[in-house]
Amino acid sequence: MINRDQIRGAVFRLPEETIPEGGVSAGEKIRLAVNAAIHLRRPLLISGDPGTGKTSLAYAIAWQLGLGPVLKWPITPRSRLREDGLYGYDALGRLNATQIAKAGSRPRTQADEPISIGHYITLGPVGTAFLPSRWPRVLLIDEIDKADLQLPNELLHLFEEGEFAIEELRRDPQPVVEVGTCDDRRVPIHNGTVQCFEFPIVVMTSNRERDFPPAFHRRCLRIDMPRPTQSSLLALVKAHFRDADPAFWGDLKQDEQLEQWIGEFLVGGNNPDRATDQLLNALYLLTQTDSRQLGEALEKQLKEILKRRLSEAG
Q: Are 98 and 192 in the same domain?
């Protein structure tokens, strides 16, 4: 069964119009950058305006290459690499379990043996992405420019070495300990170290809200996400709604009508200060049977609400 993330990857489209400088399309430039990042084992830093498809690119890569679910780490100003990205350790839970076991008054049995420390450790999305596996996982670090100043520098060592240590396991006498993952699996960790076989495909997105240090830029491959165009949006809409009930479409099944809608969305060129989601939401609502009974005045107002520019206050 195809889930929502897979659908997002399957319907993603890039502009294919040829760029005058260089004679290649914007979509081809993105594909070249993705392939280079995979072969060079380097993270991909995607910059661009909100709503241009930066995060959807990660889902498209996973879909096209059949690499399974995308591991997602949405960044906030409080995000920490070790605790939120690599792994979490429930020290308090382990302490409580130990105290409860010591407080028991009945004779000890095998069931009373201390639970392994691995039951209190869960790998985060970054830690899970760096587990050894035959095929790389796709890791999405979303809106990295929201992070504090230190986090990008902390990522550098991980990107260089492809491994990290779980200190709590290094102190454990057991050479192999099973821990949990963010995608609900149990995996063995050897000697307290996680080391990838295949470097994950790391996609980091940025809204250009801050500058990163040169050392961070040196480790990444950087590319700008192109703004949507008439033809790329037409292909996206058709892919997104290809399985929709025909009764919901009405006249919008015709390319001419769709192009008119997209043209209105792109008023001001291919930088309309709107997100692609707004177009998809507008088409979904306005192709419903009930919405077609609104009348011209209310339909116009609904269009204005759905297509409001992102920079407009209030």
A: yes
